[in-house]
Design goal:
Order of helices and strands: HHEEEEEE
Largest sheet: 3 strands, antiparallel
Shape: rod-shaped
Strand order of the largest sheet: 1-4-5
Strand content: 5-15%
CATH architecture of the largest domain: Alpha-Beta Complex
Mean pLDDT: 86
Number of strands: 6
Low-confidence stretches: none
Number of domains: 2
């Protein structure tokens, strides 16, 4: 019996050693699997970080290009506006030169006036040419005489008493003509208003 007991104890010791050994091996496997899982997760996270970094760089590049493109657009627009303004100014001034020539000839002619009627007619022609020039540029005179005083078109210089009730609140005299272009006032008419 002692022998059986001894064998049994040995068997238990062997079994328990085996169990401990199995546990150690399972623990090693578990640690290896944990390390493998951790390395796999770490690799996935690093790959994710790399992808996000790459996307961030692409977005930053697109943003910088967009900002540069907008800045170039803004500069180009300013340049184009300046060129258009200069072209328009030059175009108007070029069309004004024949009128300047006519006025200069009229002034030179003043010293040699022989026929007053011809001089008056010449000045009327120059005036009509100037009015036609303004109309060709879309500039029109603002009508004021006998119109109701309107602050959108008229600037009252003074008020003058009138006896006729119908003329009260109306323009009775124009001190300086006003002009508009495409329904935009260039200069208000300076007027005298009846009261």
């Amino acid at each position: 019996m002692d022998k059986d007991l001894k064998n049994s104890q040995e068997q238990e010791t062997n079994d328990s050693s085996e169990v401990i050994e199995n546990q150690k091996q399972e623990s090693k496997k578990s640690k290896k699997q944990s390390k493998t899982v951790l390395k796999s997760k770490e690799k996935k996270l690093k790959d994710g970080i790399d992808i996000l970094t790459k996307n961030n760089e692409e977005l930053k590049d697109k943003y910088l290009r967009l900002v540069a493109e907008y800045d170039n657009f803004r500069k180009r627009t300013i340049k184009e506006k300046t060129e258009i303004r200069e072209y328009t100014k030059n175009d108007v001034l070029k069309d004004f030169l024949p009128l300047a020539d006519d006025i200069e000839r009229a002034v030179q002619h003043l010293n040699e006036i022989k026929n007053i009627e011809a001089t008056i007619e010449g000045i009327r022609l120059i005036n009509q040419k100037f009015i036609d020039f303004l109309k060709s540029k879309g500039i029109e005179e603002i009508t004021a005489i006998n119109e109701e005083f309107n602050t959108d078109y008229h600037e009252a210089v003074t008020r003058f008493p009138v006896e006729d009730d119908e003329r009260k609140g109306k323009v009775i005299d124009v001190v300086q003509k006003g002009y508009e272009i495409n329904d935009i006032v260039l200069r208000f008419s300076k007027v005298v208003v009846g009261e």
